[in-house]
Amino acid sequence: MAPPAARNTIFRLINASQHSACPCHGCRSAAHNHAHPAMALNQLRKFATPVNVVQKEYAFEVAASNLRFGEGVTREVGMDLKNMKARKVGVFTDPTVAKLKPMKTALESLQSQEDLPFEVYDQVVAEPTEDSWRKAVAWAREHDFSHFLAVGGGSVIDTAKTANLFTVYKDADLMDFVNAPIGKGLPITQALRPLIAVPTTAGTGSETTGTAIFDVTSRSFKTGIANRALKPVLGIVDTENTESCPTAVHISAGLDVLFHSLESYTAIPYNERTPRPSNPILRPAYQGSNPVADIFSTWALRTTVKYLPRIAKDRGDHEARAQMLLAASFAGIGFGNAGVHLCHGMSYPISGLNKKGPKYKHPGYLVDHPIIPHGISVALTGPAVFQFTAPSSPDRHREALAIFNSTTVTDPSITSIPDSEIGAHLYESIARFLDGLGVPRGLKAIGYSKNDVAMLVEGTLPQRRVLDLAPNIGDVVGEDGREHLTRIIEASLEY
Questions:
Q1: Which residues, listed in sequence order, are joined to residue 118 by a DSSP beta bridge?
Q2: How far is the C-alpha of 19 from the C-alpha of 12, rounded, in Å?
Q3: Burial (CB count <10 Å: 0-12, 13-18, 19+), residue 153
Q4: What's the confidence (pLDDT) of residue 7?
C-alpha cells in the first residue's frame, strides 16, 4: 500500500480543481454564510444581476421510527399489532428467514393473539429488483391489509415499505415515487398503513428510515424511494435475531453501517443545500449533515470500528452482535435524516452492472446468481472517497481518522497532521480496516477493469439524490461531477 505522501499525488488535480473554484472552499465554520456567486447549483450571475436565485435551506427535520431494543422482544409483536387494533396483517420475509428462528417467533406471537388474521409473503428477493417489487405489490394489493409486518434484512423491510405504499396508492406506477430524475419523485400525501419492522441483520437501519432501495435492472444500477411516510411505526431490534447470520453477511451489513455513518457525518451541511423547499412536504428525507444526525452517526461509527472486527473473528460474540444491531439503528437515524453520498452513489452501478459484467459472486452468500453484497459494493470506493471529501471539512475527517486509529482528536499523532494531509491518512486507515475484514482490495479484485470506469460513472451520474449531498460534487453550474467521479473510481480500482 502506497504511503500517504504518494496517495496525495493521486488527488492533487482533484484538490486543485476544488480550491480553484472558490478560494474559501472547504470552510465549514459558522461564519461561512456568505453567498457563492455563480457557485450554487442553478444560481447564475449575468452583468452582476442575479438571475433565478435559488435560496439555501434554512431548517432540518428529524424523523425516525420508534425503536424497541432488547433480547427476545420479537415475542411481543403479536401484542403490538393487537394493541394497534390490526384487522389483517401482511407479513413479509424471504425464503431463507422464513425457515429461521426470528420468523418462527414472530408467527408464534401472531398466532397467540385471538382474532388476528394474517397472510405471509415469503418470496422477497435479496437485493430486490423492480420485477420483485412489482410481484410483492401485486400480492399486497390482492389483500385488504390494515397493517404490515416485515421480518428480515433490509431487502425484506424495503419490500414491505413498497407494498404498503402501493396498497394505499392502488393506481400508481412503481416509478411515480422513485427518486428523480430516475423516477417522478412525487410527494406522498396520503397516510400509509402501520408497518412494524423486525431486522435480522445489523446493517441497513431500514427499521428507522423512510428509504427503500431496489435494482433497476433495465438501467443496471440501483435507486429507491425516500420519503418519511415510508418509515415503520416501530422497529423491533431483537439481539437474538442475528444469531444465525453467516459471518460474510455480518461483515457486509456492518460495512453498510460504517459508511452510513461516515457519509452522513461528512455530507454537506443542511443549510448549504439548495433549493429551499417551497412547501415543508417537499423537504427531502436526505437533508445534509445536521447537529442531531451527527450525534447518531458518530456514535455508530465508533461502535462499528470497535465491534465489527470482533464479529469477523467470532460471530458468536453476543456483546458485539448486540452493539452492531444498535449501531445499525443509530446509523439509520443519522443517515435517514442527513443522507449518504459518494460511496452509496457509486455502489449502485457497481452492484447493478455486475449481473451483466464481472458476474462476481461474493464468498459466503448462498445464492445461485452473481452478487456483490451492498456493504461490499459501498466499501470498495471508501478509501478514495474520503480522501476526496477531506478538504471540504478537515475537522470532521480528522475526527473520523482518530476513530479509525482508536484514539482521540487531541492525540499528538492526530493533531500533528496538517489539514492538507488528513485525506491521505484517512485513506490508509480505512484501507487497513477493510483489509482486516477481508474486503476485496478494490474494483479489480471483483472483476472490473479500467475499461469499465466510464460505464460506472454513467451509472452514478443519475444518483442526484445522494450526489447532491456530496462535498465538491456539482458545486459549479453546468458541472455534474463527472471528472471527479472518474478519478475516484480510477483510484478505487486497486489499493
A1: 89
A2: 11
A3: buried
A4: 52
What is the C-alpha separation between 31 and 218, in angstroms, rounded?
Answer: 46
Which pLDDT tens digit goes with each residue over 103-152? 999 999 999 999 999 999 999 998 899 999 999 999 999 999 999 999 99
Sign of the dihedral defined by the CA atoms of residues 381, 212, 93, 369, in that order? negative
443 in Cβ contact with 350 (< 8 Å): yes
Task: Write out pLDDT tens, residues 330-385.
Answer: 999 999 999 999 999 999 999 999 989 999 999 998 888 899 999 999 999 999 99
User: In residues, how long is the chain?
Assistant: 495
Whole-angstrom distance, CA of residue 258 vs CA of residue 436: 14
Mean pLDDT estimate for the chain: 90
User: Which three three-digit cell numbers place residue 9?
Assistant: 499525488
Using the structure block, give the residue that is written with the C-alpha cell 459466503: 364
Q: How far apart are CA 374 and CA 260, in angstroms?
A: 12
Q: Collapsing DSSP states into helix, strand and coil, what is residue 481?
A: coil
Q: Which three-class secondary structure state does DSSP give residue 363?
A: coil
User: In the block, which residue shows the cell 429551499?
Assistant: 276
**Alpha helix locations (H) across 169-290?**
247-266
DSSP classification of residue 281: G
What percent of the chain is modeled with pLDDT above 70?
Answer: 89
Rounded Cα distance, 297 and 416, in Å: 25
Planar angle of CA 347, 353, 357, nearest 5 degrees: 130
